[in-house]
Amino acid sequence: MEVDKLIQLLKSHKSLNTSVRLGILLGLYYVKSAWFAQLLESTRLNKAELYQHLRVLEKEGYIKLEYIPTVRGKRLRASITQKGEEVAKEVLKLLNE
């Protein structure tokens, strides 16, 4: 059963055990990268909560966080990594079957 496979996949990637982190990862899979402000708007989390979730995803190697200088100062950008893309593809494959 595919549900069992999905549950096992999520158990083996413990940092994806919350819907918020899984949602962020899947969203970044489609857009490849997003500004912190865009993620704030999309998730409707407060800044501290969102930043904590992003740090967990970065620590596990699913995303890369970098501060980029802009005219309005430094802005945080999150980009999906190869590892993140592989896991997101696997999750989406199981959800589609």
Notes on the protein architecture:
62% of the residues lie in helices and 20% in strands. It has 97 residues and is an alpha+beta fold. It has a single domain, classed as Arc Repressor Mutant, subunit A. Strands 1-3-2 form a three-stranded antiparallel beta sheet. A hairpin with a 2-residue loop joins strand 2 and strand 3 (73-80). The longest helix is centred in the last third of the chain and has 15 residues, at 82-96. The radius of gyration is 14 Å and the shape is elongated. This is Winged helix DNA-binding domain-containing protein. InterPro entries: WH-like_DNA-bd_sf, WH_DNA-bd_dom, WH_DNA-bd_sf. Residues 20-96 form the Winged helix DNA-binding domain. It comes from Candidatus Acidianus copahuensis.
Distance between the termini: 10 Å
Order of helices and strands: HHEHHEEH
**CATH class membership:** Mainly Alpha
CATH architecture: Orthogonal Bundle
Name the strands of the widest sheet in spatial order.
1-3-2
Shape: elongated
InterPro entries: WH-like_DNA-bd_sf, WH_DNA-bd_dom, WH_DNA-bd_sf
Protein name: Winged helix DNA-binding domain-containing protein
Domain Winged helix DNA-binding: 20-96
Pfam families: HTH_34
Key words describing this protein structure:
97 residues, alpha+beta, Arc Repressor Mutant, subunit A, three-stranded antiparallel beta sheet, 20% strand, elongated, Winged helix DNA-binding domain-containing protein, WH-like_DNA-bd_sf, WH_DNA-bd_dom, WH_DNA-bd_sf
